Q: What sequence folds into this?
């Protein structure tokens, strides 16, 4: 199981991260400045030491640095543009990994050939993304040959068809260890005026979008990614809409943005369940949702039941494992436990 750890600049304390079920931690995020990968926060060096120390108790654990993300993908297009710009970035990566004793790199470019959160992009991003990954793999393999220690290269990829269309996944998959699918945010309050499941496993026939994680997995396989390199992404947070009618307990109904459109799973458990919100189960999509009839609030989220089903799906489809965003959404470890027990010992390589 691969988990993103996003501290938002805070310093980790001993015992704060439980690595019992984890095979990989992706620390988010490093940034890019002047063409080089740099620390994202002053606390990062301290946090790397805290995370790499977890390998003592869990020898199979690897710790990777994730670079970019939704807000910090601004400079990727420039970095990947030429052989010289790629070389500068790649050299900074090698120095970074060695300095902080990390096991590899996760590229979270959101997204090649697309604007994302308003980032510069180019048509040639499609080929340059492949070139960047190919060159990083060559460097990683050369270093590993000298040290005897494998360096992992992974990528985070979106669930939208446009993301696949603007990449060369059949080529890309040759150079990466895993493709971490962000199979969530299919519905978001603000961008979607209608409520829906933000991480459905299968499509509900009534869903106007017919969205599903299963369809995304199949699309990436059709694009050339082997099943064993695919990690199914799951969210440790929910999506919230207000002003939702009681029809169908709020599912697939008009809604609007309200304060707290994102709710961590821990907040859902402590503040919503048993506090005016009723839980419902969509047996077609295999995910739960909440509705508050008094406040007309709809919440799409994951819970241990849905994650057990997704873990069984990962085993059945022989995928590489599960990836989640992100650790601090589930401080009590209930979701971690559900995935860990669902995958079982030896059923997840990553």
A:
């Amino acid at each position: 199981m691969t988990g993103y750890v996003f501290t938002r600049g805070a310093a980790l304390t001993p015992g704060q991260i439980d690595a019992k079920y984890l095979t990989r931690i992706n620390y988010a995020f490093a940034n890019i400045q002047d063409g080089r990968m740099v620390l994202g926060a002053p606390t990062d060096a301290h946090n790397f030491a805290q995370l790499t120390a977890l390998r003592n108790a869990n020898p199979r654990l690897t710790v990777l640095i994730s670079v970019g993300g939704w807000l910090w993908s601004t400079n990727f297009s420039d970095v990947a543009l030429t052989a010289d710009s790629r070389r500068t970035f790649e050299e900074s990566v090698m120095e970074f990994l060695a300095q902080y004793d990390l096991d590899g790199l996760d590229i979270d470019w959101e997204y090649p050939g697309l604007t994302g959160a308003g980032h510069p992009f180019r048509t040639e991003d499609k080929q340059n993304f492949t070139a960047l990954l190919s060159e990083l793999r060559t460097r990683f393999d050369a270093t590993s040959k000298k040290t005897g220690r494998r360096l992992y290269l992974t990528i985070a990829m979106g669930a939208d068809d446009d993301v696949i269309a603007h990449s060369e996944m059949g080529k890309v998959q040759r150079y990466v260890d895993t493709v971490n699918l962000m199979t969530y945010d299919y519905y978001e309050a603000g961008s979607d005026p209608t409520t829906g499941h933000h991480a459905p496993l299968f499509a509900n026939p009534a869903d106007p979008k017919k969205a599903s994680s299963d369809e995304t997995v199949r699309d990436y396989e059709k694009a050339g990614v082997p099943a064993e390199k695919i990690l199914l992404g799951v969210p440790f947070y929910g999506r919230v809409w207000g002003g939702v009618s009681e029809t169908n307990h709020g599912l697939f109904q008009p809604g609007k943005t309200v304060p707290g459109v994102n709710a961590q799973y821990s907040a859902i458990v402590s503040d919503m369940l048993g506090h005016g919100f009723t839980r419902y189960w969509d047996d077609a999509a295999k995910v739960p949702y909440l509705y508050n009839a008094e406040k007309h609030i709809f919440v799409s989220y994951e819970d241990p039941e849905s994650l057990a089903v997704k873990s069984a799906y990962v085993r059945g489809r022989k995928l590489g494992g599960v990836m989640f965003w992100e650790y601090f959404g589930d401080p009590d470890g209930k979701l971690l436990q559900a995935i860990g027990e669902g995958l079982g010992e030896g059923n997840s390589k990553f």
Remarks:
- DSSP finds ten helices and 14 strands in the chain.
- The chain has a mean pLDDT of 97.
- Residues 2-235+302-343 form a domain with the TIM Barrel fold (CATH 3.20.20.80).
